[in-house]
Amino acid sequence: MRIVIIGVGEVGFHVAKALSQENFDITVVDIDPKKCRRASKYLDVIVVEGNGASPKHLIKANVEGADYVLALTPVDEVNLIASRQAHIL
């Protein structure tokens, strides 16, 4: 199962960790380079550095091939836009 997680802060990081330990294919998207480096270093995930609400970065994360897309940023507006963009793609 392919899952894209938008936002790899504390919540997104721990969700990605739990799901990757269950052998799901996880891609995380975050605009913060430090969070991306942390995910890359400690998790078995694909990391896309960029704006999770941007169609360009969602396409790079292959949301159209995902079974689930989880928007877990701390900003509700970003989560709504990211969810809508992922649905459109």
TrEMBL record:
Molecular functions (GO terms): potassium ion transmembrane transporter activity
Domain RCK N-terminal residues, every copy: 1-89
One of the Pfam families matching this protein, by short name: TrkA_N
Record keywords: Ion transport, Potassium, Potassium transport, Transport
GO cellular component: a single term: plasma membrane
UniProt cross-references to SUPFAM superfamilies, sorted A to Z: NAD(P)-binding Rossmann-fold domains
Transmembrane stretches, start-end: none
Protein name, entry field: RCK N-terminal domain-containing protein
Taxonomic placement: unclassified sequences, metagenomes, ecological metagenomes
